[in-house]
Amino acid sequence: MPPSALRITPTAQELFDFRGDALILPLIEEGEPLRGPLKKIDEILLGAIARTLRRKVFRGKPSERYLLHPSTRLSVQQLLLIGLGKASELTPDRIRQATAEALRQLLTLKSRRVAIALDHIDWGHLAGETIAQTITEGALLGLHRFDSYKHEERGNGDREVESLTLLCSDRETVRSLKRAIGRGETLARATNLARDLINEPANVLTPTELAARARDVARRYGLAAEVLDRDAMRRLGMGALLGVAQGSANPPRLIILRHRGGDDHAQPALGLVGKGVTFDAGGISIKASEGMETMKGDMAGAAAVIGAMMGIAALRLPIHAVGVIPAVENLPSGSAQRPGDIVRAMDGTTIEVINTDAEGRLILSDALCYTRRLGARRLVDVATLTGGVVVALGSVRTGFFSNDRTLAQQVQGAGEATGEKLWELPLDDEYEELIKSDCADLKNTGGGKKAPAIGAARFLKHFVGDTPWVHLDINGTWLQEKAQGYQPKGATGVMVRTLIHLAATLASGRAR
Ligand code: BES
Ligand code: ZN
Ligand code: ZN
Q1: Both 428 and 488 in a single domain?
Q2: What atom in ligand 1 is closest to the CA of residue 355?
Q3: Annotated catalytic, 287?
């Protein structure tokens, strides 16, 4: 997938000197009266902006938009007002959302060269760099499309916004904004990479192909990559992972990506583990057919880890991080594992497979053991794991679980900074009942409708020992059913930005 062609540049230029197709004017709800260049523009437009505000046709509510056609009075054809809401409630995420909505509207109007004004309003406590970074993220995330299989759209330059110019008043600012834009570009491109992988159909994106794409990312961004095949995993004793894989003709892979920032010899400060089920039919405990096509996205956790590792490498974060992805396909066949089978994970734990559709925790158990064996000092896993988390939190917040207060707070903080909402769910010992087996150390499901997301998390907890760990269940947040804000319809790429932010936090504290 070619990266979005949108070029984003800061320029020290007055609003009315910009020559292009459209100008975006962000406005604060109940903000101060029009001043400076904004007042001048309003005068050129014979008071049109002041009038819309006075008549409350446009109030500046979050992501509210109002389009003006200045005709020949300005050097742009479209002037788009976007609302940022009240100054006291302004957050980076509001800027991402508003920018994305504005650009998507301008795309349908075929605007190609667009500018956004920065200096005409008071942005309150937000720093210029934060504003530039979040505008960049909003633009690139909001304009992203997955259309490589659509003939009429493919390579159609008419459907692109070509450039976005950030208009600011002085040259000094331009340099710092350039850096911030660069950061925003990396975060957005990492997320879009994950989205593309997730949207890719399962006939194309098999475990082998996922490994090939991960290797490609590694080559481009300077990560070390290693891929283990079935034999290598057998030698390591990864019986839980291999049991899931045995029903498919597409062989499994274990993908390892490594970024050696900071101390080269130290153990990895961060181990990221992503569920990579390239298609989940449920196995012998087969799923209902309605909606089963979305199960091509059961590797959204893997994609989040690949995207995050890309971002960590591109930003050259001074941290040693490793990404581990168990990649398998979960299909029913004559060689598939059966309900009632007992498998043995890499650390010797025996598991009774009650339901072959609870395959995520099986492959993650071996991947978590492996990542611990690599010496990771912290573990964060990301997985489209349970329907239960959707019942609990819908598609607004990602559910998370943790055995460590410090890491939990760091992950929570990273989510807040990036606008990816999280909510912690409990892991009390009493829930252990859900996964006690009569004939093995653990069973992979139990309890029916009782707390299935927690049962799954308790299961994973067995494989992390005393290593600080966070489990992110993204089953409610990986897919967007209707385009909204900076999320187009389809895969969201959720947790990529949170994980990169987490790595940056750990790096800035020089975590060991
Ligand atoms: N990949 C699914 C998660 C899922 C569940 C996606 C429901 C979409 C809808 C996971 O592997 C799964 O099948 N989980 C089951 C486990 C159950 C069989 C214990 C679930 O949560 O329903
Ligand atoms: Zn499943
Ligand atoms: Zn699954």
Answers
A1: yes
A2: 18
A3: yes
* Residue range 406-464, pLDDT digits in tens: 999 999 999 999 999 999 999 999 999 999 999 999 999 988 999 999 999 999 999 99
Residue with tokens 């996964």: 435
Confidence at residue 153, expressed as pLDDT on a 0 to 100 scale:
65
Residues 239, 134 within the same domain: no
Report the CATH number at residue 94.
3.40.220.10
The H-or-E segment that residue 131 falls in is helix 128-142
Q: What is the DSSP letter of 32?
A: P
**Tokens 């943790």 identify what position?**
402
Contact 97, 106 (CB under 8 A): no
Quick one: DSSP state of residue 464? Answer: T
Residue 441 in any domain: the answer is yes
For 19-41, the DSSP string reads -SSEEEEEEEET-PPP-HHHHHH
| List of residues 6+ apart from 410 with CB closer than 8 A | 502, 505, 506
What separation in angstroms does the CA of 426 have from each of 209, 394, 461?
A: 36, 17, 12
Indicate whether 317 and 437 sit together in one domain.
Answer: yes
Q: Are the C-beta atoms of residues 255 and 232 closer than 8 Å to each other?
A: no
**Beta pairing class for 442-443 and 469-473:** unpaired
Q: Which domain holds residue 455?
A: 193-508
* 207 and 294 together in one domain: yes
pLDDT at 264: 65
Q: How many angstroms separate the alpha carbon of residue 387 from the centre of ligand 2?
A: 9
Residues 6+ apart with CB under 8 A from 89: none
330 Cα nearest atom in ligand 1: 11
Ligand 3 midpoint to CA 384 (Å):
6
DSSP label at residue 318: S
* pLDDT tens string 344-360: 999 999 999 999 999 99
Give the residue among 244, 246, 255 at the shortest CA–CA distance from 205. 255
Q: Are 368 and 281 found together in one domain? A: yes
**Helix or strand run (H / E) with residue 166:** strand 163-168
Would 247 be classed as within a structural domain? yes
Asked whether 29 lines ligand 1 (CB < 6 A), one says no
Q: Are residues 401 and 500 in the same domain?
A: yes
Give the β-pairing of 78-86 and 469-473: unpaired
Residue 398 and residue 489 in contact, taking contact as beta carbons nearer than 8 Å? no
Domain assignment present for 251:
yes
Angle at 15 between CA 9 and CA 18, to 5 degrees: 60
